[in-house]
Write a structure and sequence with these properties.
The complex is a heterotetramer of chains A (299), B (312), C (398) and D (269). Chain A is mainly α and 299 residues long. Chain A is 70% helix and 2% strand. Chain A is globular and about 60 Å long. Classes of the chains: A mainly alpha (299), B mainly alpha (312), C alpha/beta (398), D alpha/beta (269). At the B-C interface, helix 1, helix 4, helix 9, helix 11 and helix 12 of B face helix 1, helix 2, strand 2, helix 3 and helix 4 of C.
């Protein structure tokens, strides 16, 4: 029993929390991939930007972290739209690898700008320790974890509603399916692209703020989670938002479960290899099912 | 010391490093430029080459594998073979994946390789890295030692360039181009597409291993930080795309241009006014990123475009 | 966008030209400004600059020349350090280099650039034991003790504090892994018990699972060998929030104010002790530095910052002693100005030092980080103390 | 079958063009009158699909003009073409596979500002198999149903003309007949149709007029009946049974890229 509670407290719950944050990041990444056809390396820095906007708002107003989300999202969206206009749109007609390289340049620029504006120090959104609710005398539930998972779920539901029940969401899915046919159907692709950036930026900002809420923030936090987020997006099948949600959860939970003492007393996988777990899963999956868990687009 | 002489020495260093990067870029050019394979795991092959040559060439230290003290003619081919073997294994797993999937899969494999180098102390001395790697010609008096190293790198580069140009014009190169441009047609013409792809991937991987080995000998020290994707994989991609992919001259040009930009930008940013001084290092990367954007927008096909050996 | 870039570029070129004609004596100030620990490096660079400011305000070097620190970004990586070292040595023509910070960067820069060029380097934070064995022709110095000292000292101090069963977690980078290994060996030979030991990959968002596995080993305390920013703070937070450990020990990479602001002094007081090179905070040398550094808006308790000040100050003394900008002479003078015997010079006392050197008297610098005495390998012996958190929420030596 | 009007719905006047420098069609003149079914037949690589692409600005046009109801639309962008009333059903990937049938129709009506629901019900009435499957992803439909969905999607905008690129490619004979029947049904609503087909016999059977393309040139034109009866056409296309999967390709031709790297129309990786 104790063993089970320990497993839930220290492996499963942290895994789910981390997984929801990865999932939010991965949805944004996979949407931009599906519609713009390139892996956006600046996505991690977009998350960092959102977190720092939240920090500014908290410094000014002392509001609860979740109340800063709208501001973080708004500013992140504006920044991303300006960047699209300046750096991605002029390259849109060319090969997509150019966009990928441009996103790499943008990653350098964004991180430098964040370091110039906010410095390189570690910051926190919620100082002090979180106190858990203890249920059944041993199950520890943190209110902040409930808020994080709840906010992530709400946002995912929002994405679901957007994609399933709004015309622009359907157009996004259509364009992700086949950009050529979308153009021949008369969809104004620039509007869809804009909607994609907005959705991706909203989710990235949320992921950044929630990650900072759970731990702390600094100028390199986004890049730190970029690789697991890529793995999550790929695991779900690139261009598949629902796949990305599942992929994020799988990667987050797997990372935390890998260090559980499944056999004997020591951790199953040396914690030094923890960040390799995401990739190992991904590669195993690629061999078994090359288009991802949810049949992503194979080019 | 005379400042012109100092700049001369720096120029030698700049060219040597540019040359080492050019080897890496040419390796990528075989994979991407000729064959269309999106390898985002350059750092992994680079690191395998660097560590292999270090293990072959250093004196025995008890801290890591090897200590064979063998000279350059053994360490460079050894590095190439080790990287080629790893590339072959990766290709065997991943070659059927297309573009972006291959990219992220190779990125993941490179990260796993980096973790292995970091965690398997018995073989690599882990995070503390391998030091005292012999540098060719280091016993010559300055500046001849540095000039000799540069000449060695340039000679390797010249040989590679001539071989690759020949291969590109040969039937092998034309098949590669055909596979990149229209796989179905190449398949229909009875070509073993998978086989050719694996060949290109392995060959490119071997060159990346060679680049890693040269870097290890040049810097005389390696640790797992040198396999970080940012400082190796991405910069090599930027070099190829800026220079012009599919074109060996473009690969060479891109390597020297981007490396010069990357390195010399610091000389400029350290001269910023005092209030900017501490932030100048961050500003430097902002400007490098901006310069990259400007070049991409002005030359979206690379500064030197691809020249087809045959074509209407 | 493009236009403003051009304007910035023009301004940069203009300043470059103007500064090239000033009467400067350039010394390289290399550090991992970008890379994995930018937060630790920034205050260290500021402390070096403070020393330069003091020197220039009090008459400057030699005939009133400007002591100019030229920054170089070594990125905490050997390749980056070689790159910036090349520029400092050959383009900037520096006479000596302070830094770089990280051990790998220091080894790379020394072996590939500065030793062949005959340039002396003095790092305040490169602590890897292997630097001791470099064939450096007397050109590589450091005023931070090797990890070999700190790991052993920490083992003694932990046992003195009454803890005999500890679990160890360390970030698998050269610095933390080095201390952890020395610590484990010393702790065991001293009769202590390591109940469990595991490395961790830095920069992950959560370490709850790793710590929970360690916590089941029956340890009384957790040894956290990590940089506070890349994993240390998260580990302590995860442990406390989940009730996995309530006593922590760490090395100097954990000694930072941020960890207190982040987790809260009340949550940490009495629960964490970290070792750091003893800078004898009661000494007038340290107080003098701390006062000036605080006045500049910086945190004097930030790890290695007293040493950074000392490194920059020592290098200036060596140049003054050498009486010129000859690289070889400076390397030889460095040991003389640092080691006893001689007239005691404290931080900020540049005029006094200048006068003493002019009069041909021997001097002995007593730094903010303590008295610095180089041995034949260019190393300093370490004295360490444990720091705890006081009632004002600051790190103080126990 | 309706009579020819004076001003054709779609007219190609001496169009030449190709991709990236090499010319694939030469001096093609084609006319689709109001209410007509016009079919293009010809061997593989004769340039039939290029003619379709030219309408959508997907082909680099070196000479000639394209007119829609007398107005020039040469080189128009795809999203503009559909706004002008040209609906195109490509040969492959002509539906959005991950959208349901109904969503496909909704997206088909993207440019409509009015209430498109009546039109959608009309389409479901026109294609009864789709009505039952409106909630399943279009990717899960059978080949024939997918063609219907693609046509229904294209018809959502009430187009001036419908372009079909090999609507029966890859279908079994039974479905082929069904599709040709559907094409006639659509045409019966007064919508002119320009159709590229491999199954020359059946296509000419339902067409008012036809054009024979060979090597990018327009070799013959005439009414469907005349062409069917023409011995040259018979020798060229109808010698083999028309329900065979592929028609003979006397000239492997310019569109199939050779393996020597001379291909010119593919994208850079």
């Amino acid at each position: 029993m104790n063993e089970l509670i320990g497993f839930v407290n220290f492996h499963l719950i942290p895994g789910i929390v981390l997984g929801s944050i990865y999932a939010l990041g991965a949805i944004g990444l996979t949407l931009t991939f599906g519609i713009l056809r390139f892996a956006n390396f600046a996505h991690g820095e977009t998350m960092t930007l959102g977190a720092f906007v939240a920090l500014v708002v908290i410094d000014l107003t002392n509001w609860h972290v979740l109340a800063t989300l709208p501001f973080a999202m708004l500013l992140t969206v504006l920044t991303v739209l300006v960047m699209d206009r300046l750096f991605f749109r002029p390259l849109r007609t060319g090969p997509t690898v150019i966009l990928l390289i441009a996103s790499f340049g943008l990653m350098l620029m964004m991180r430098s700008a964040i370091q110039i504006i906010w410095g390189v120090d570690l910051e926190t959104l919620s100082k002090g320790l979180a106190i858990p609710w203890v249920l059944f005398e041993s199950l520890r539930i943190f209110p902040k974890h409930l808020l994080i998972v709840g906010a992530a779920l709400l946002l995912m539901l929002g994405v679901h509603g957007l994609l399933r029940h709004t015309p622009i969401g359907k157009a996004m899915r259509a364009m992700s399916d086949s950009p050529e046919l979308a153009r021949m159907t008369g969809i104004d692709t620039e509007r869809v692209v804009m909607a994609t950036w907005i959705t991706g930026a909203v989710l990235a900002a949320a992921a950044g703020v929630l990650l900072a809420y759970d731990t702390h923030l600094d100028s390199r936090m986004g890049f730190r989670v970029l690789l697991p987020i890529f793995a999550a997006a790929l695991l779900g099948g690139l261009g598949r938002p629902y796949g990305a949600m599942a992929g994020g959860l799988v990667i987050g939970v797997a990372e935390e479960l890998s260090t559980y003492s499944w056999i004997g007393d020591g951790p199953l996988v040396s914690p030094g290899y923890k960040s390799g777990v995401a990739f190992a899963i991904m590669i195993a999956l690629l061999i078994w099912r090359p288009s991802g868990l949810f049949r992503g687009r194979v080019f | 010391m005379d400042s012109l002489y100092g700049i001369f020495l720096y120029a030698i260093y700049l060219l040597t490093m540019g040359g080492i990067y050019a080897v890496l870029v040419m390796g990528l050019n075989i994979q991407w430029g000729f064959t269309g394979l999106f390898n985002a795991g350059i750092a992994g092959f680079f690191a395998v080459g660097a560590y292999t040559s270090a293990i072959i060439s250093t004196a025995s230290s008890g801290r890591h594998l090897g200590g064979l003290s063998l000279p350059l003619w053994a360490s460079l081919p050894g590095a190439m073979i080790a990287s080629a073997l790893i590339a072959w294994a990766v290709a065997w797993i991943c070659i059927r994946l297309r573009s972006d999937y291959l990219a992220i899969a190779t990125l993941g494999i490179a990260e796993i390789l980096r973790l292995v180098l970091k965690n398997e102390d018995w073989a690599t001395n882990g995070a503390r890295g391998i030091s005292r790697i012999p540098k060719p010609f280091e016993d010559l008096p300055e500046p001849w030692n540095q000039i000799a190293m540069l000449l060695l790198v340039l000679a390797i580069l010249l040989v590679l360039y001539l071989l690759l140009e020949r291969a590109r014009r040969a039937p092998w190169g034309r098949v590669m181009t055909a596979i990149r441009e229209n796989e179905a047609a190449a398949r229909a013409a009875g070509k073993n597409v998978e086989g050719f792809r694996i060949e290109a991937f392995v060959l490119g991987g071997a060159l990346m291993g060679l680049g890693g080995a040269l870097m290890a000998h040049h810097v005389k020290f390696i640790d797992p930080n040198m396999a970080e994707p940012l400082s190796t994989t991405f910069i090599v991609w930027v070099m190829l795309i800026i220079g012009g992919s599919g074109n060996n001259k473009g690969a060479l040009f891109g390597a020297f241009l981007v490396w010069t930009l990357w390195s010399t930008s610091e000389i400029v940013t350290t001269r910023l006014p005092a209030e900017w001084e501490l932030k100048s290092a961050y500003l430097r990367f902002f400007l490098v990123g901006l310069a990259l954007q400007i070049i991409l927008q002005r030359y979206p096909a690379g500064i030197l475009k691809e020249h087809r050996p045959i074509g209407k | 966008m493009k236009k403003s870039f051009l304007i910035t570029g023009a301004a940069v070129v203009a300043t470059g030209i103007s500064s090239a004609f000033a009467a400067d004596i350039k010394v390289g100030s290399a550090g991992g400004i970008t890379g994995p620990i930018p937060d630790l490096v920034a205050p260290m660079m500021a402390a070096r600059d403070l020393a330069a400011k003091h020197i220039n305000e009090q008459g400057g070097l030699l005939d009133g020349d400007n002591y100019m620190l030229v920054k170089g970004d070594s990125k905490c990586d050997a390749k980056g350090a070689v790159d910036t070292g090349q520029k400092l040595v050959n383009v900037e023509q520096v006479v000596a280099i302070i830094g770089p910070n990280c051990s790998g960067a220091t080894i790379g820069m020394a072996e590939s650039v500065t030793i062949p060029a005959g340039v002396v380097i003095l790092s305040e934070s490169a602590t890897a034991p292997s630097i001791t064995d470099l064939e450096d022709k007397g050109l590589v110095f450091r005023n931070a003790p090797s990890d070999a000292y700190q790991g052993a000292a920490l083992a003694d101090m932990v046992m003195e504090s009454g803890y005999n069963k500890v679990a160890v977690t360390y970030a698998n980078d050269d610095y933390n892994k080095g201390i952890a290994e020395v610590f484990e060996a010393a702790f065991k030979s001293g009769g202590g018990m390591i109940t469990a030991s595991a490395e961790h990959e830095p920069e992950k968002a959560s370490y709850t699972s790793e710590i929970s596995t360690l916590s089941r080993s029956g340890a009384e305390a957790l040894m956290v060998f990590a940089y506070y920013g890349s994993s240390g703070t998260t580990i302590i937070r995860n442990s406390l929030e989940n009730g996995l450990f309530d006593m922590f020990f760490g090395a100097d990479g954990m000694r930072n104010e941020e960890i207190i602001t982040d987790i809260g002094a009340d949550n940490l007081r009495g629960k964490i002790m970290v070792s750091a090179p003893s800078s004898d905070t009661e000494s007038s040398s340290y107080k003098m530095f701390a006062e000036e550094f605080s006045a500049a808006g910086e945190d004097p308790s930030a790890v290695y910052t007293p040493g950074s000040y000392d490194a920059a100050f020592l290098m200036a003394l060596a140049i003054e002693k050498a009486g010129g900008t000859d690289r070889g002479a400076i390397a030889e003078a460095l040991m003389e100005v640092a080691n006893a015997p001689g007239e005691a010079i404290m931080p900020g006392q540049w005029e006094k030092a200048k006068a003493a050197i002019a009069a041909g008297r021997d001097i002995n610098y007593q730094g903010a980080s303590g008295s610095i005495e180089f041995d034949a390998n260019g190393d300093v012996a370490g004295t360490y103390s444990l720091s705890v958190i006081d009632n004002n929420g600051k790190w103080v030596e126990k | 079958m309706s009579a020819l009007s004076d001003r054709p719905t779609l007219e190609f006047q001496g169009i030449s063009g190709g991709y990236g420098g090499s010319e694939i069609i030469h001096d093609i003149s084609i006319r689709v009158g109001a209410g007509e079914i016009v079919t293009l037949i010809g061997p593989n690589g004769a340039g039939k699909s290029s003619v379709m692409n030219a309408t959508f600005g997907q082909l680099q046009i070196n000479g000639g003009r394209i007119l829609l109801k007398g107005e020039e639309i040469t080189g128009i962008a795809p999203e503009q073409a559909v706004r002008r009333g040209i609906s195109y059903v490509p040969q492959v990937s002509n539906v959005f596979p991950n959208l349901t049938v109904q969503e496909n129709l909704e997206i088909g009506a993207w440019i409509r500002r009015d209430d498109f629901r009546p039109r959608m019900e009309e389409m479901f009435a026109l294609f009864p198999p789709l009505s039952e499957r409106r909630r399943i992803p279009a990717g899960a439909l059978s080949g024939g149903q997918r063609q219907m969905a693609a046509m229904a999607k294209a018809l959502m905008v009430d187009p001036e003309i419908l372009l079909l690129d090999e609507p029966t490619a890859g279908l079994s004979p039974r479905f082929r007949g069904e599709i040709f029947a559907v094409v006639r049904k659509v045409n019966a609503r007064g919508i002119p149709i320009l159709m590229v087909e491999q199954n020359a016999r059946q296509a000419l059977g339902i067409a008012d007029r036809g054009y024979v393309l060979v090597d990018g040139h327009c070799r013959m034109e005439g009414s469907g009946k005349d062409l069917l009866a023409n011995p040259e056409v018979g020798a060229m296309f109808l010698g083999r049974r028309a329900d065979e999967e592929t028609s003979p390709a006397p000239n492997p031709g310019s569109e199939a890229p050779a393996v020597d790297g001379s291909t010119t129309q593919s994208m850079r990786p």
